[in-house]
UniProtKB/TrEMBL annotation:
It comes from Natranaeroarchaeum sulfidigenes. Residues 5-128 form the Gfo/Idh/MocA-like oxidoreductase N-terminal domain. One of its GO terms (molecular function) is nucleotide binding. Residues 177-386 form the Gfo/Idh/MocA-like oxidoreductase C-terminal domain. This is Putative dehydrogenase. Keywords: Oxidoreductase. InterPro entries: Gfo/Idh/MocA-like_OxRdtase_C, Gfo/Idh/MocA-like_OxRdtase_N, Gfo/Idh/MocA_oxidrdct_glycsds, NAD(P)-bd_dom_sf.
Amino acid sequence: MGGNFGIGFVGCGFITREAHVPSVEYLPGVRVAAIQNRTRGTAETLAARCRSEDLGDPTVYGEGDIAALVADEDVDGLWITSPNFTRVDVVEAAVDAIADGAELRGIAMEKPVARNLREARRIVDRIEDVDLPHAYLENWPHEPEIQQLRDLLWERGRDAGRPYLARSQAEHAGPHSAWFWDGKRQGGGALTDMLCHALAGNHVLLADPARTDGGLDPVSISADTETLKWAREEYAAELREEYGVDYETAPADDYARATIRYESDAGGPLISEATGSWCYVGAGVRRSIELLGPEYSGQVVTDGESSSVFVSDALCNGDGWAEKQTATSGRMPIPGKRVVDGGYVAENRNAVDAFERGENGRLDLHDGLEVLRLCMAAYRAAETGEDIDPRTADLRSYTPPPARG
């Protein structure tokens, strides 16, 4: 849509700097209007980059300035990309500002919505109390290759029968921010970090695109979580020194697996398998996504072998160029236009267009709430060693073990 839509970002972490802000280059009629961060200097740096790359002339706000950002007349939509433990406070301040007369056209929130269902329910209720459109920023379903996989297989394979198995695997060497390693502040470990992507992606692949509800009903969840690498003495010492977290006495999971059994309208089983870890040692992120049906299958693969270069130690200067790259010499991946290929342009275009129409995004916070419910059910299944029925399990007050401290 054509307009001049100003985004106000709350948070200047990796996902904002490397995905959302760069995506604005591909969004005609959209600009970065404001940036708020608890550390003002970080926001100033990102704002200067926006100006130099002609992405906008954002006003900078520091700690405690959420209300001022929301009241900024140049801000049309609020993009909340701040750490998980800040989400409720950010939404409370934003909604209070709207109640006091500030105007927004919508709020978009990076995955996950919150650390647990109590917080997520509070966030959704408060935003809907002021009748504000919202969007859930989960990039996997918006990725062009995943979207094409879904469209082609459902279109060509429908007569043979709906797809019945979606599998997703995603792993890398670990997060890049201290709070991500802290179970209390993050809300969990690799399960809430990695499997929220995979479970959302699998759900979209298995959901019937011809139906608004997708025709999916999750009936059973089994899961496992482990700490395989980072509680070992040498790695725990590394985390303590670099991030100030104690994985020897308070570890979070660095490996997780979840299997969700759905039932189709006809009563047949549909399976979503998701695995993820922070244990992979390689060039960037390793990922595979599959969809299988009665007479068809499809796969999307992202790994360090797809496109790469080799750089010797003699030329290495310690700088990487790919997400989650854990080395600076040897064979290195060549990332394409990651903000396009990774779905960030599409998800932000969708949110902006929806807000300009006064509607929720293709994925809204209710979708995010459902993904978080599956994550909480998976944590409980892993903790109890029993399958969980998400239709009947009371997860409203559940806190995953890593978040209990």
